[in-house]
Design a protein that fits this description.
Largest sheet of chain B: 11 strands, mixed
Distance between the termini of chain A: 29 Å
Strand content of chain A: 25-35%
CATH class of the largest domain in chain A: Alpha Beta
Strand content of chain B: 15-25%
CATH superfamily of chain B: Glutamate synthase, alpha subunit, C-terminal domain
CATH architecture of the largest domain in chain A: 4-Layer Sandwich
Largest interface: A-B, 19 and 28 residues
Number of domains of chain B: 1
Strand order of the largest sheet of chain A: 7-2-8-1-14-13
Number of domains of chain A: 2
Structural class of chain B: alpha/beta
Number of strands of chain B: 11
Number of strands of chain A: 15
Radius of gyration of chain B: 21 Å
Order of helices and strands of chain B: HEHEEEEEEEEEHEH
CATH topology of chain B: Pectate Lyase C-like
Number of helices of chain B: 4
Radius of gyration of chain A: 18 Å
CATH architecture of chain B: 3 Solenoid
Shape of chain A: globular
CATH superfamily of the largest domain in chain A: Aminohydrolase, N-terminal nucleophile (Ntn) domain
Shape of chain B: globular
Distance between the termini of chain B: 23 Å
Number of helices of chain A: 8
Oligomer: heterodimer
Helix content of chain B: 10-25%
């Protein structure tokens, strides 16, 4: 079933980390397997936040060797970043297997991403001037506490609570998905795409990589592909409603925008609250109530609808 | 009229189309059968006896249990404050009761009702009033999708906009939408009436068996076997009376509303045996 949520503060930063944690925690019943956050802070000119992992949480429970392996994999990632000319400004260990680097880099981002992901077990969760993407097994509170997201200040955020249906319970199948190799684009999705394999083959043929067998990843890659050929976000999203088959509601974010799209059958839920300076949307109103306990006016977007908001 | 031509065409092909028009939507009981109208376990309540429940510290089950407890003590007017869009509130109430929600409900609110009068000052989520059998529910703001799914009776009113698949599988009763309704409204509708004062989304009345849909605004398009019917004085009188009951008005007048009914051309209206159908087709 899965739960998705997003929020955007127009023209100011706020406690989006704690707000999104509260929203996702109230959607736990829609998906207890994993939780993911894509948080957008103030953009940094010339610097990127690189979030990556070198193993799955599950891997850490099997055997003694994995602890040495993650150290070796991380060292290899460091070496390759250095080789590509990426200067590490700061590094944080989010967990034993997932890391946050602040890097300075002015080269080809796709080459950098491909080279890093060539390391065994390595997956880049996100690269962005503003985006920080975190996902792991467990509910929102557990993941937020584990990665220290409650104090995150930013303009907007999207998140996901996952009930695994057609792919594994692991981090690579958790949402959000970063729109590799584009900075700052992330997607969360509730639904099922029925033309996944056909589109995946097309997109792989154009050089895009898929890290999972989760159909939701296709939306992120699709949006990235359309933006790569010059579509702006809203145009790409409108096109997706025509071209992607199945039932879906998805939320996408860029460095300064938040958007949502609903398929023409409107079979997946979305509730929306919009004021002059704030927009919140979620699979269920109870999530919006977790940040707005007082009485508010909410509504359902309609079938085939695409909406985009600026931060 | 293309629909009429299709009817003639099917008759010429030897197909019978069942005529259901005019079938009553009500069942009448004699005085001797009045005991059949009351569930043996229904609470005797006094409408002048009032109580309030603060839902904020309670989960959905506790709220529903508290409503039942108060009913068993004879409270006939219950106000629930701070419902907080929690799911499945006010469900399965099978006797008369005045129930007021001050705030919004989540999914599956007020389902399986048979008798109570309910007001909601806020919004309701998906599947409000599912399978309602009798009573009245009035929502002041908007509603989510599958509003009034499979209702069998009663009046279900949303004064704002409603999502998709409103009145899906409606089997009786009345649904009134003050604003707009989404795609597939009236999908597989079987009986009852739906009044939409605003616009209706795609595939309105798709595969409807019977029943009537009235639309005051624009219709994106009609679903399979949904056709336009002729507005009669009786239709106008009924709509005016119903809207007046709930303080609503048709912006362009009830006489200018569009009436949608079943074309009754789908296979389920074909009375031929399969072997006969093969010969015709």
């Amino acid at each position: 079933m899965c739960g998705i949520a997003g929020l955007i503060h127009r023209g100011k930063s706020s406690d989006v980390g704690s707000e999104l944690t509260a929203m996702l925690q109230s959607l736990k019943h829609r998906g207890p397997d994993s939780t993911g956050f894509a948080l957008y802070g103030e953009p940094r000119a010339g610097e990127y936040i690189l979030r990556f992992k070198v193993a799955e949480q599950e891997d850490m429970r099997h055997g003694f060797q994995i602890h040495d392996q993650v150290k070796e994999r991380r060292a290899e990632v460091d070496r390759r970043l250095d080789e590509m000319g990426a200067r590490k400004v700061r590094e944080d260990d989010a967990t034993e297997y997932a890391y946050r680097y602040l890097i300075s880099f002015d080269g080809d981002m796709k080459k950098l991403a491909d080279y890093v992901e060539d390391v065994e077990g390595a997956e880049i969760l996100s690269i962005g001037n503003a985006l920080e993407l975190v996902k792991d097994l467990g509910d929102a509170t557990a993941v937020s506490d584990q990665y220290g997201l409650n104090t995150f200040q930013g303009t907007h955020a999207i998140g996901h609570t996952r009930m695994a249906t057609e792919s594994d319970v692991d981090i690579r199948s958790a949402h959000p998905y970063w729109a590799y190799p584009f900075n700052d684009i992330a997607v969360v999705h509730n639904g099922q795409l029925t033309n996944y394999w056909g589109f995946r083959r097309q997109l792989e043929g154009r050089g895009h990589r898929f890290m999972s067998n989760c159909d939701s990843e296709l939306i992120a890659v699709y949006i990235a592909d359309r933006m790569n050929v010059g579509d702006d976000l809203e145009v790409a999203m409108n096109r997706s409603v025509d071209e992607l088959d199945g039932v879906f509601t998805y939320v996408v974010a860029t460095a300064d925008k938040l958007g949502m799209a609903k398929d023409v059958m409107a079979a997946k839920p979305m509730v929306l609250y919009e004021s002059d300076d704030f927009v919140a949307l979620a699979s269920e109103e109870v999530a919006i109530r977790s940040v707005f306990p007082h009485e508010i006016d909410t509504y359902d977007p309609y079938e085939g609808e695409v909406m985009v908001w600026q931060s | 009229m293309a629909e009429l031509d299709r009817t003639h065409e099917s008759h010429e092909l030897g197909m019978h189309t069942e005529e259901l028009t005019g079938r009553t939507q009500q069942t009448f009981f004699s005085a001797e059968e009045s005991h059949n109208l009351v569930y043996p376990w229904a609470s005797e309540v006094d409408f002048s006896k009032t109580a309030e429940i603060d839902a904020a510290p309670l989960d959905q089950r506790q709220v529903n249990q508290e409503i039942r407890r108060l009913m068993s003590e004879g409270y006939g007017t219950i106000t629930v404050i701070n419902p907080g869009a929690k799911h499945s509130l006010g469900v399965g109430i099978l006797s008369r009761l005045n129930l007021h929600f001050e705030g919004s409900l989540g999914y599956f609110g007020c389902g399986l009702l048979d008798g109570p009068n309910v007001t909601v000052s806020g919004r309701v989520g998906w599947s409000c009033a599912e399978n309602m059998m009798a009573g009245q529910i009035v929502i002041e703001k908007n509603a989510g999708s599958t509003f009034g799914a499979a209702i069998r009776g009663g009046d279900l009113i949303c004064k704002g906009d409603v999502g998709s698949r409103t009145g899906i599988d409606q089997k009786g009763g009345t649904i009134i939408v003050g604003g707009r309704t989404g795609a597939f409204s009236g999908f597989m509708m079987q009986r009852g009436r739906m009044v939409v004062l605003g616009d209706a989304g795609k595939n309105l009345g798709d595969s409807m068996y019977d029943g009537t849909i009235y639309v005051g605004g624009k219709i994106a398009d009609l679903g399979v076997d949904a056709v336009e019917g002729e507005m009669t004085d009786l239709d106008c009188h009924w709509i005016s009376r119903k809207l007046g009951q709930y303080g609503l008005e048709a912006a362009n007048g009830v006489e200018n509303m569009t009436k949608i009914v079943s074309g009754k051309q789908l296979w389920n209206y074909d009375n031929l045996e399969p072997t006969e159908k093969k010969l015709v087709l």
